[in-house]
């Protein structure tokens, strides 16, 4: 049995094919005799919709059993997770879902036993938590978008628009939720998308294949998933307001692109083309240098600089060098937006930009030297300020800590009282 309920998409082609078969059956008005028990479902004005969902589920299960008949049990369990997701997602389209859900699942599990009487269907088909269903659907539609293009169900233009919107929505929700299994499933999609380029674009010769950014869960100094930008988050913060409906709010204030990068743990969102991507990358570097210049008295700044350089800049160094070389060329006039942004950054921070290009470690060392060369009284003030800042961050946990300590003291007193009395 798979332990990660998001780790089922290695059989995505089969799932999509199964759904296509159900759609074809319905168009031909094929009736499945084993789904006759669905007709006794009765939930008022939504009765017909519920019956159709039930009938389609039975068809899907029958086709699934045929599809996985020769597979290992561990692989079959992934199909079962897909079936449970599919049913939960369809049921949640019913307006009165909360009213009908218990009766529906009871009726289904009582009258339908496709795996025999020895298998408890409640262990396979059951109500799932809403956020999981939303996450699964976001992943499923990413894969389906590829299939829709391959099958000619959507245009190339629609595909490009949707892949960008849907990928970024999943990327943002990954870090918003902090669910490693969900994020890992996005990483798997990223790999799938790149490996299946020739198949997805087979009928679109000459068209540009939209490029997904590299996606990494483990990067840099900390070697912990979803916690790559620890110091960046502590010093600068993120840029999104928590949301669970695929919509998000970007705070377009100071350091906005840098904050977005930190929120995404040094991963870039998908852009429509290289011009847009490189523009964001130059903005990030510009804002990073600006932040470092404006916060030289921050004792943790050099640690943040090291985190940024190792977790992000070094990973994108080849692309940055390409931008630098192209935009520094004197042989031709470059009108790309990112070159204009590069020239602006160079005008404002020429020395810093030059140092990062030539030796980023020296850039970090100069910040360390700056702190070490401060007068002792000024360093003492900065250390005291940092201590109070850390205390403020810790204070919200203090009541819990004190309560735990008091509880332990109470239990110790009761224990000794008991020993004395006995």
Automatic annotation (TrEMBL):
Pfam families: Plasmodium_Vir. InterPro entries: Plasmodium_Vir (IPR008780). It comes from the Eukaryota. This is Uncharacterized protein. It comes from Plasmodium vivax India VII.
């Amino acid at each position: 049995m798979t332990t990660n309920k998001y780790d089922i998409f290695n059989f995505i082609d089969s799932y999509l094919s199964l759904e296509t078969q159900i759609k074809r059956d319905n168009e031909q008005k094929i009736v499945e005799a084993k789904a006759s028990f669905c007709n006794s479902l009765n939930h008022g004005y939504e009765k017909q919709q519920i019956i159709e969902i039930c009938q389609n589920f039975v068809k899907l299960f029958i086709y699934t059993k045929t599809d996985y008949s020769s597979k290992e049990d561990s692989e079959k369990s992934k199909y079962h997770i897909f079936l449970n997701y599919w049913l939960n997602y369809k049921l949640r389209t019913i307006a009165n879902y909360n009213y009908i859900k218990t009766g529906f699942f009871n009726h289904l599990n009582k009258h339908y036993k496709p795996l025999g009487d020895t298998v408890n269907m409640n262990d396979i088909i059951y109500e799932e938590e809403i956020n999981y269903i939303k996450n699964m659907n976001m992943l499923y539609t990413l894969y389906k978008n590829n299939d829709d293009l391959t099958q000619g169900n959507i245009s190339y233009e629609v595909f490009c628009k949707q892949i960008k919107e849907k990928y970024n929505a999943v990327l943002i929700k990954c870090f918003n939720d902090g669910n490693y299994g969900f994020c890992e499933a996005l990483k798997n999609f990223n790999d799938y998308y790149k490996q299946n380029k020739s198949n997805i674009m087979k009928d679109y010769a000459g068209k540009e294949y939209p490029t997904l950014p590299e996606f990494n869960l483990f990067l840099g100094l900390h070697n912990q998933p979803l916690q790559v930008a620890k110091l960046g988050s502590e010093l600068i913060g993120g840029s999104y307001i928590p949301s669970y409906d695929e919509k998000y709010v970007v705070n377009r204030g100071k350091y906005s692109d840098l904050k977005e990068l930190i929120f995404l743990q040094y991963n870039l969102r998908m852009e429509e083309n290289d011009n847009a991507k490189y523009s964001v990358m130059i903005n990030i570097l510009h804002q990073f240098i600006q932040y470092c210049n404006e916060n030289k008295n921050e004792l943790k700044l050099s640690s943040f600089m090291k985190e940024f350089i190792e977790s992000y800049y070094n990973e994108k160094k080849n692309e940055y060098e390409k931008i630098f070389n192209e935009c520094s060329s004197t042989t031709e006039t470059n009108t790309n937006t990112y070159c204009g942004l590069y020239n602006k950054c160079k005008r404002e921070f020429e020395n810093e930009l030059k140092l990062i290009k030539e030796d980023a470690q020296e850039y970090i060392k100069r910040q360390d030297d700056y702190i070490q060369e401060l007068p002792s009284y000024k360093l003492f003030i900065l250390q005291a300020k940092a201590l109070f800042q850390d205390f403020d961050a810790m204070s919200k946990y203090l009541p819990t800590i004190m309560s735990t300590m008091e509880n332990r003291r109470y239990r110790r007193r009761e224990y000794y009282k008991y020993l004395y009395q006995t």
